[in-house]
Amino acid sequence: MILKKLDNLFAEFTKELEGTTPKSLEIVRTKYLGRKSELNDILKSLGAMSLEEKKVTGAAANKTRIEMEQLLAAKENELNKVVDTESVDITAPGRLYPVGHLHPVTQVLNELVGIFESLGYEVADGPEVEDDWHNFEALNMGPEHPARDMQDTFYLTDGNLPRTHTSSVQIRYMENHKPPIKIISVGKVHRNENEDATHSWIFHQVEGLVVGEGVTFADLKGTLDLVAKKILGPDTKTRFRPNFFPYTEPSAEMDATCPQCKGAGCRSCGGTGWLELLGSGMVHPNVLRNMGIDPEKYSGFAFGLGVERIAMIKHNIPDVRYFWHPDTRFLEQF
Ligand code: DAH
User: Which residues lie closer than 8 Å to 165 by C-beta, 6 or more apart?
Assistant: First the structure.
């Protein structure tokens, strides 16, 4: 009779223990093992039993008590573990979220703008889609001019085109401003290029235009030599090579000593020690005339440089395509 009762008690206990929570664990313990528990009543009643009965019932009651204690301890352990993994460790360091930064081309572009602003240049803007007049004709490149081939590009159905160079902004600015003029313009340009390591069909340029009385080629050289030293390092040397642009006369390309080998010759500069940096020249009298500026009174110089190219030279980047491939392993280096 009592043995049956112990069995029932144990069954009831295990069932109740199963659904217990950290809060109800102590309630279960008191209910089944406490001073007022049924098990305690049974243990207390042992004294009044016969020796035979006491032996059997006592052993069974004690066994039940020990098993209950063991199961309670195991349950307590299990519940503590859950609390550990589910709780928040307020002493743990916070999760770091990666912070982005400006694109390397934007960085170099900003640097260039800063250099020219420090020299007193104003930043002018122009549209990315141009008409033939601003992109070519006003710059002394008539419809049949062979120099147009160098800047073959995409044409829109209305005859306009994504500008092939920022030189168009020279024209836009001179339409509304009289000398003295001292501007740069930055932005995107397009060419019909097959992409390779050094050619991209879309890139950025910085254009410059200075027009005033008595502006000479010496001003051009002094300015661009200083800019090269500021952007590539103070020990940079420059040289000017004669070239042809329809909108300047005379025209020159400027090379700078390779920042990797300082002019000694290495793989980055093809062993020559020099890298081509930009195109430049004295503004062609026809361009000034087109703008209603008297070339007998005023003279000027102009230049255009590729921003990606400068960024590649500055950081020794071998392939222009890296800039626009979305690979953060590349971008994180700058
Ligand atoms: N527009 C030329 C190009 O895209 C660069 C250039 C050369 C700009 C001479 C000028 C200049 O303003 O005077 O290749």
Answer: 135, 151, 189, 205, 207, 304
